[in-house]
């Protein structure tokens, strides 16, 4: 779990991503690409069935996840939900 957490924070704070966000208008396309990148990387390193959601503003949610594989954190003005669903 620590490895997953470390990778998530590393990907989100990548110098390249930070530089891009500072030099360009951050738009929905950029966050769409970030979600796709994070999901692909999690699926590749930790198996399929990962979900990545980036939220701007309020939200209410109810979902199931595999025990120990649910991460929720705030970075700048975005809320990140990252979780793995159980393999049924």
From TrEMBL:
It holds the Pfam family Dynein_light. Transmembrane segments: none annotated. One of its GO terms (cellular component) is dynein complex. Residues 1-17 form the signal peptide. Keywords: Signal. Coiled coil: none annotated. GO terms for biological process: microtubule-based process. InterPro entries: DLC_sf (IPR037177), Dynein_light_chain_typ-1/2 (IPR001372). This is Dynein light chain 1, cytoplasmic.
